[in-house]
Design a protein that fits this description.
With 184 residues, the protein is of the alpha/beta class. The protein is 36% helix and 15% strand.
């Protein structure tokens, strides 16, 4: 009887333990960035970042009152570390006027990507010091969450996170335009 109860208890606890381990592997335990399975239900905004909805994002876009930063990845693309030029495997469409920093939303960044992303966002902020920065990717995507956290830690203020991203933009019936990665 004891062995049977022990076997049932172990069988019931194994899925919890395995699920707990899988969940822990999704985040860097030191930095807190999501490092795997970037598509999934996203929690609240990182500390110091404000989550906005599609109506507010569209209002700010129409008034040209914000800096829009797209951090969607560029599948199959290659970035020349020396020149910063990207060779894309497929075109990308985004919010018109947005600045695209592919791969900048990953939890662990390839060499040079973080420096390129932070230098680019600092340059944009210097050019438009009164405009908030709006980060986005797709709905249920942790990449914009990671990028927002990264900018907050780099000392940026007025960081807005448009969690619905390109999916939410399309749902509002708003247009997208072709975009290439930021070169500077």
């Amino acid at each position: 009887m004891y062995r049977m109860r022990l076997a049932v208890t172990v069988a019931l606890l194994l899925p919890v333990s395995a699920a707990g381990q899988a969940t822990e592997a999704l985040f860097d335990p030191v930095q807190g960035y999501r490092v795997a399975h970037y598509r999934g239900v996203v929690g609240p905004a990182p500390e110091g970042v404000v989550r906005i909805d599609g109506k507010r994002a569209a209002r700010l876009w129409r008034r040209r009152a914000a800096i829009f930063i797209d951090v969607n990845p560029a599948p199959g693309a290659v970035r020349d570390a020396g020149t910063g030029k990207w060779t894309l495997a497929e075109p990308h469409r985004s919010i018109p006027g947005a600045h695209w920093f592919p791969e900048a939303g990953r939890g662990v960044l390839a060499p040079g990507i973080e420096r390129w992303f932070l230098a680019g966002t600092h340059r944009l902020r210097r050019a438009h010091p009164r405009r908030p920065i709006i980060l986005f990717c797709l709905a249920d995507c942790w990449m914009s969450w990671n990028a927002a956290l990264r900018l907050e830690r780099a000392g940026h203020t007025e960081i807005l996170w448009y969690a619905d991203g390109l999916d939410g933009w399309r749902e509002q019936g708003l247009s997208l335009s072709a975009i290439t990665p930021s070169r500077r």
